[in-house]
Amino acid sequence: MAGTAWNPGAPVLDGIAIGAPWLAVAVLTVLRGHARIVGLMASLASVAASALLLLAAPKGESLYEALMLLFSCLTAAATLVLPKRDCDFRAIGGILFLLGATLLAYSSENLVVFLMGWVLSTTPFLRESWFRARSWRPVASLLLSSLALGAAVSIIYYSGHALSVNTLSGRSPGGMAAFGLLVVAVIFRKGIWPAHAWVADAAESGPSIPTALLLNGHLGALLVAKLILPLYPRTAGNLFPILSWLAMATAIYVAIRALTENSPRRLLAYLALSQSACILAGLESRTSEGITGALVHWFVVTVSTTGLFGILRLLEVRFGENLTASDYLGLAGHAPRLAVFFAVFGLALVGLPGTLSFCSQDLLIHGTLMSHPVTGIVLPIATAMNAVSILRLFARLFLGRRRTGFTHMADALPRERWTLAAGVLFVVLGGLFPNLIVAQRSAEADRVAMASAAPNAWAEPREDRGSAPIIAPPRFDFWLR
Amino acid sequence: MSSSQAALVFVVMAPGAVFFSLALTWLVGWVPSERTLSRITGLTFTACLLALLHLLWTLASTGDSAIVVTFGNWFAVHEYRFPLVLMADHLSLPFLAMTVVLSGLIGQFSATYLHRESGFFRFFVLLLLFAFGSLLAFAAGSFDLLIGGWELVGITSVLLIAFFDQRPAPVENSVRVFAVYRACDIGLLVAVFAMHNWAGNASFATGMPKLAGAEATVVCLFLLLAAAGKAAQIPFSGWLPRAMEGPTPSSAIFYGGISIHAGAYLLLRVQPLLVETRIASICVIVIGLATAVYGTIAGHASADAKTSLAFASLTQVGVVFVEIGFGLRSIAIAHILGHAVVRTLQFLRAPSMLHDYHRMHSAIGGEISPTGRHLEDLFPERTRLWLYRWALDRGHLDTILDRWFIYPLLQISRLFAALDSVGRSGRTERQANPTISMRSPAEQGVE
Lengths: 481, 447
Prior knowledge:
The structure holds two protein chains of two kinds.
Chain A: H1 10-31, H2 35-56, H3 63-81, H4 89-107, H5 111-122, H6 136-160, H7 165-168, H8 175-190, H9 197-205, H10 208-216, H11 219-231, H12 233-258, H13 264-284, H14 288-319, H15 336-349, H16 356-371, H17 378-398, H18 414-432, H19 435-453
Chain B: H1 3-27, H2 34-62, E1 66-77, E2 80-89, H3 92-113, H4 120-139, H5 143-161, H6 168-199, H7 213-230, H8 239-242, H9 248-257, H10 259-269, H11 271-274, H12 278-300, H13 305-325, H14 329-349, H15 353-364, H16 381-392, H17 397-420, H18 429-432, H19 441-444
């Protein structure tokens, strides 16, 4: 973790957070049973270790610990919500493998370790026996993003003779070639236009909940915050607006595209993509408000879209795999609580007051309009369109004449209900008391903005934080230094 | 915190707290009986009314111009702050009182009107959320907070339009109304951003943000966009007849009473800025005047009672806009209060309108003899026919919106879909092998 004080327990906790899920994968491969229990225990171990890391992190320097905790909680929730039909040792094993790889990428300050996390997180989606989609585009995009990142890391090491982000900060290692390759990696991984189509393909033809977890790792945004902004402050200053415009183009493109989409999975994928693009646009705004909004929105999008994909999967196993938004299905009569959860998560994604996204959207729009007064208007327009699309999807799935072709279908089961209620509580309580989250993210946004503004800024003291220079601590990747 | 400040906080927060508690208890499995629900609602609004009376008494006895409660910043990032300020002044108090009284009355009316309706619980929960949103918007001390209440009013309005969700028409209309709301709310978001950017804040608890000239004009025009959307002014009037799909009590409180006047409240709140800019004032007058004329003509061709009343509302709100544009603030407030109360009553009586007519006719001993004099007689036959067609299609507003905005947007969306499908590997297994059809056996013709 960049900029944190030395914490001797951190490598151990990192090791537990990342190692526990991978160990569980090995156990599941042998056991081939009790998948949900093993998965839950392993993800709870990651949750506990990440929580301890977060508690130990200094104020304002805990972004990656917070993200580790969020993703661990999300995986624990996914193992609980996963329908019985999907919950075998392969699915749980794949999810845990993804958890370990994503946490590795979050916790790393070393380029090679980051690359490992990046590549490993795509592995379950390349293997037929795990989560490989039946379309070629997801596989191609994930491979291309990994190749681009691998090439960028090679060039950076060749020109900078170092692999630590802190050492390379502000030095623009590898120049335009490395910068360009990193941007390409972001574009393919995040599904930025014109490489956006794979996201919808993956959501439609792959398993729903694991795909949601893959998308919500937001490793593309992580690459921007962790590598591109600190390593290339000058280049980013000049050329980064191009990525920002692409992000805004993606936000509006997929928002328009979603207006006529009738496949619920694809529609949700477009909404997730549009809102994720807003995160990228906020990060690029290079204003404290925009970056803070982006970081808070990261949390909102992650929880909301995972919740939405989870609910959709629960509906599919109850009412059939071919749900469509071309007709009114009237499912609220059968599953009223799932309908309410869907409505809350959906509206929370698009800025409903009283939810955390109201604050994040407010900050995002403010920051983006400050940095791009003309093109920034695209974000509120895209969000408005997304709001219409999510309401249309809700209406088509849940409203309409109650269908009589089913036997009695259970509404949300207790384990599903309580897990989804926890997600709803997060977005609602976060919205009622946003400063608890915004203040933390604001301090971290300063660091991101500072890193992108000044050469070698991560190693420089901040005027308002005393004169002690910020020294990067050894973390889980200490063995590579 | 003084007792009057506590009373203000209570008035705003009580419906929200009751909504939150009821929603949470429902999620964990408890559904209150109709009687319990209506009593809880009645008690909430009675308590709010008492607190409001205390507030009025305090203001009258102390001679203060406003009661302000500051909770600090809801969230802040450097100089950008979201102040959490509630304010009750001479403008917001009438609106607060109107909201509390009408919401309480509608609650009591609906307890009988919606008896044994399957969405009884949903209606009351949404009524409480709506009251909370309205009170928050009217008591907000900054435009930032006003957006919160404003959006809540919008979403509850949309959910209540789709109340009778067994039929597709209410649901489709609710999505349409939501689209118009969200499009117009962009104006509010941009205006607030502009205030922060140019004046440093968007708070009006201690006076309006200092803006003049072109800046004031730009802010006022964006706020006018938001206000026109919420108040169904031209060119956004097409959504109002569609909103009549909701249950009568919700139509009464939204489109006769409170929601339809929220746009006028926004303009009244921003009036110190509005007087600075002639262009914006003229726009307000023109839009109001055009809407008043439109509402009058289109209302003449409405075949059902609720739609006629909706157009009558539109006409009156248009006149209110004109009054605001001319700076007649007190007249506008009085007009809003009188109109809201009368129109709500008319909406509530709409389902029994025929019964009322019959009773009146039997009381006077026959039908009222028509005078035979109508304003439209002043126009030549050809113009009258054209006006009739124009009114029947509601001024072609929806047609224009569809033809020039919605259809092109959907065409672009379909073009994007075609572009995205390039290289897509045919039909996926999900599409090719549906496991269970969503159609019931009866619909499929299966015995």
